[in-house]
Amino acid sequence: MRQSNPTIAALVAFAAAMLLVCNPLAAQDDKIVELTPAQEDKMAQGRAAYKDGDFEKAAGLYDEAIALGPFNLGYLNKGRSLQRAGKCDEAAEALRALLKAPVLAEPAPDTIRGAMSRYMEELSRTCQGTLTVECDPGDALLNFAQEDAGMLDAREDTEMPDIMCGKAVRLAPGRYTIEATAHDQRKLYEVEVKGVDEALVVVAISANPETQIVVKEITGGPDPMVVVGWSTLGFGALSVASGVTFSILLNQNNKEIDTLANQPVIQRNEIDDLRSNGDLFETLQFVGYAAGIAGIATGLTLLYLHEDASEEDPNSGATALSPWVGPDQVGAVWSITY
Q: Which residue segment(s) compose the domain that 135 sits in?
């Protein structure tokens, strides 16, 4: 009897592993847990307190349920309760914690993560963020205003906090213009502040007026929808590639069957083995194409929805490449905000 081809066996094992491992949801390696009766009781009490408008009490009850064993829904409800109580930073911390917590089978983990993304987006629009300006020289004079909020020297009218080099200030979400003065030079910078996030601006003013100022803007991590969108798109592309691989293997397998069938002495066992391999290749080919099409369609949809939301929300993330030209040099500043 003909020996199995080790190359084909290796390709089958590789492609099957790829379909399982490359799935962005499976890659999260979610641990599924069930609530104990005590946790169920705390969750029910928390929901009742939330319904009554006692959001701090609800957050405390959800925290007690989590203390009995962490789970994603507990963190989600705790974060939402803290958000409604006006405790933005604590809410963001609880919402981020659910990404590493064990999950419940119901509601589905994707549903929980989707709600977490929406709540984090609300926090970024409605809560204060932190702005820190680092200066060189350290005694540079700073002044600033929110865009469309008046002149730079009108802080009395807009109730803007004082800003100093190296000192963090809490600000409402929005774009701000910073005025830095040193060495008889005055420079303006723009920065975006997002809720429950930290923005850092580095101001460098040299005593030599021909030296170009470089502004570095740093903000928080990527939007989860973008991460999932690109991950799903990549999974779809790899799945399609696996489908193509199995199409090639299926074609080669069918050729071998035709060759054996035309021989004077037909080897039934070998033909049966090849037909069995062909059925496997055909199934894996179908799974690869189906998963690939679904993954690509889902990934593109998520990226399109994120792009559409970015156009509607002026505070949404953006990538910018800003060229500059100095007296004796040229360059560009690349910044990305989320």
A: 129-218
